[in-house]
Every structure is written in structure tokens, then in C-alpha cells.
Amino acid sequence: MRRGVVWLVGVVCLVAGAGIGWAHPVHEARELTDEELVTEMNHNAALSAYIERNGMPDVAERHFLSSRRPWDDHEVALYYLETRTEIAFARAWILGSPSVHVERYERALSDEELAALATRARRHGGSGPAARAEAAAERAEAAATRVEAAAVSVEQAADRAESITAKMERGFHRALQK
Questions:
Q1: pTM as predicted
Q2: Does one domain contain both 75 and 59?
Q3: Which domain holds residue 60?
Q4: CA 52 to chain centre
Q5: Which residues of 63-81 are buried (b: 16+ CB within 10 A; e: fewer)?
Q6: Which of 7-21, 54-68, 142-156 has the lowest mean pLDDT?
């Protein structure tokens, strides 16, 4: 009888421990602050590139992903309300480091999901299409400036190569005259 009680208590403790593990807040979705989102962007190049192209999301969340490799333990989901889009990014581990940064999925939001997210939406520098268009124009202008700087650098390299080629040609002709 005593053995049965000990066994039963052990099983109850094991089941309770497993239940507590699954109810742990690590497994729940959690909204990210702007600072936390920037930190995630620093760790995930695909996420960073997407936000650079499309602007800051209206809502960003961190979701539990996996407790097993190759996936990282979480993914970051971005919600863009105007385009009714949810897109998630994660990292995969290769050779001991999280070096693969991927877009896991992209899907359309339902009306119910859109309504629920609208109450949590944050606005970055204004709201609406005009603010997003202005932000996109600023990103495009910054990209054009970077391209212009790269073009100047390439032009300078071409001038140096042309100068070196001219010196080599003159040297070659002098060597032939001797």
C-alpha cells in the first residue's frame, strides 16, 4: 500500500511539473517594445532587411518556436494592419551558431485578427498612408544617397585603373623603342 502511495505521489509530481513547464510564460506570445524589436533586428538580418524596406510594423510579437535544433527558441511576428499582413522571421542553427536567418511565413490577417490588433497598434511618426509614404520616401532618398556614394567610389577606382593602364602602356612603348 505504501509503495502505491509513493508511486502515485511521484506520478502526480511528474505530471504537475510537466504542466507547469508548458504553462510557463516563455511559451506565450509577448508584444515587443521598439527597443526589443531593434535588438531582434540586430540578431536577424532577414528581419532587419524587411523592416528597412517596409517600415516599422504596427505590432510586433515574440512567439515560442521550438525547444529543439535547428530552430532558435523563438520567432518574431510582424503585423502590418494596412496591408492586412502577418509575417514571421526566425533563425536556424548551423554548426553551433544561429547563422541562417529566414522568413518563416507570410499570411493575410482575418477581420477578427485585424480588429484585435488595431487596439494594440502603435504609430511611428504619424499614422495612415501619408506617414508610411513619407517614411518610404525617406528610405528611398537614403538608398539613393548610398548608391551615389558607391558610384563616386567606383568612378574614382576606374580613374585609378585608367591611370595605371596608361602608365603601363607608356612603359611598354618605351621598352619597344630601345
A1: 0.54
A2: yes
A3: 28-122
A4: 9
A5: eebeeeeebbbbbbbbbbb
A6: 7-21
